[in-house]
Amino acid sequence: MISVVSTVESLPRGTGTPAPSVYQRIRKVLSRDLFVTLALGQVLSLLICAIGVTSKYLADDFHANTPVFQGFLNYILLFLVYTTTLAVRQGEGNLLAILKQRWWKYMILGLIDIEANYLILKAYQYTTLSSVQLIDCFVLPVVLLLSWFFLLVRYKAVHIVGTLLCLLGIGCMVGADILLGRQKGFGEQKLFGDMLVLGGATLYGISNVCEEYIVKNLSRVEFLGMMGLFGSFFSGIQLAIMEHKELLKVPWDWQIGLLYVVFSTFMFILYSFMPVVMKRTSATSINLSLLTADLYSLLCGLFLFHYKFSCLYLMSFFLIILGLVVYSSASTYVVQDPRVYKQFRNTGNNRPTDPLQSSHRVLEPTVAYTSLSLESGEEPTLRVI
Fold first, then answer.
1. Where are the alpha helices (DSSP H) in 180-219?
2. What is the pLDDT of residues 370-380, one digit of tens each?
3. Cα(330)–Cα(324) distance, rounded to whole angstroms?
4. Of 28, 99, 134, 166, which residue is 20 to 30 A from 291 by alpha carbon distance?
5. What is the CA angle 355-358-363, rounded to 5?
6. To 10 degrees, what angle do helices 157-179 and 139-149 make?
7. Which helix (H) or strand (E) holds 383?
8. Is the pLDDT of residue 8 over 90?
9. How far apart are CA 286 and CA 277, in angstroms?
């Protein structure tokens, strides 16, 4: 009798607990954290929808084709708010300290971000809306591959299924556009416009992955401040070279001025809010959420631009949301290897005092499990290999 009791007491904790029911598993997947993640992504999509609608008004009703100038206004706002914040900081987070350590990296990232915005906006002048929507999805494989090789994120089969469902939703939306005949306005240089979209999507993917690393390992204010500094500088140069004549052609009045103010405000809110969502989720999750932005734009077009409606739009929205739920239902894991994972950090001030310790130090990789749908109070696990 004593031996039986001791054996029961020595069993691992939780050995006799029953397996969770189907209801408990569904409740764990459809958690509060998942709905918050979906809601934050849809806020970003609505912001992009508002940006697209104001940009369409500027281009179609007022013939103001000024993508560089529109981006320049956003970078100026970022400079005034976040770059000045870095300038008055003390210590390592100061603007000068950041520039001394990694100025050239932010310079390259600023150029990438500028040209990504420019190429996508410019493509609307040469190709169809359907082509832009379809080819712009190329940002997803770019983000997945860059996250795998540079952020060392590892995905499961459920993440691939969720991504494919989102892409299927985009296919339904493009199919509805073709059936409704929304193919007007593409010029003879459609192939050139498609290549612009492809290049812009690639640059967007690079920018988003870099942003994810910075906001999770450095600082949101640092990222936005550096984008404001280098973005305003290089977009100002590009504006003076490429768009000074276009600005002179714009029929300036209070309506155009108001549209530029609204566009810049929405862009500033988008840039300020996206790092907050990025820190909570990931670049891949955000780009999947942003696929609904085109649907919101189409719904706005029903009332503002007299677009035709199709039931395929509702199916597209359902498939994209379902894909997001499937993608967020399982955790990804990040392999953090100090032999590989050396981006943006300046480790010059963190050298060991003993040179013998540094020469015999063994760098071992770690695996950190993260999830987008953790229960309240549940902590992600950490394993060391």
1. 190-217
2. 434 443 444 44
3. 11
4. 28
5. 180
6. 160
7. strand 382-384
8. no
9. 8
Question: Residue 74 and residue 265: Cα distance in Å, rounded?
Answer: 8
pLDDT, one tens digit per residue, over 110-154 is 999 999 988 887 887 777 666 676 777 888 889 989 999 888 888
- Burial (CB count <10 Å: 0-12, 13-18, 19+), residue 112: middle
* Helix (H) / strand (E) containing 174: helix 157-179
Which residues have CB under 8 Å from 71's CB, separation 6+? 114, 117, 118, 231, 235, 267
Helix extents (H) in 180-291: 190-217, 220-238, 244-249, 254-280, 283-289
- One-letter amino acid for residue 133 of the chain: Q
**Sign of the dihedral defined by the CA atoms of residues 367, 283, 371, 20, in that order:** negative
Largest CA distance in the chain: 96
> Which residue, among 187, 275, 245, has the nearest Cα to 68 in the 3D structure?
245
Q: For residue 178, with 0-12 CB atoms within 10 Å meaning exposed, 13-18 middle and 19 or more buried, which class applies?
A: exposed
- Name the pTM for this structure: 0.76
Class of residue 316 by CB neighbours under 10 A (exposed 0-12, middle 13-18, buried 19+): buried
CA-closest candidate to residue 80, choices 92, 70, 88, 91: 88
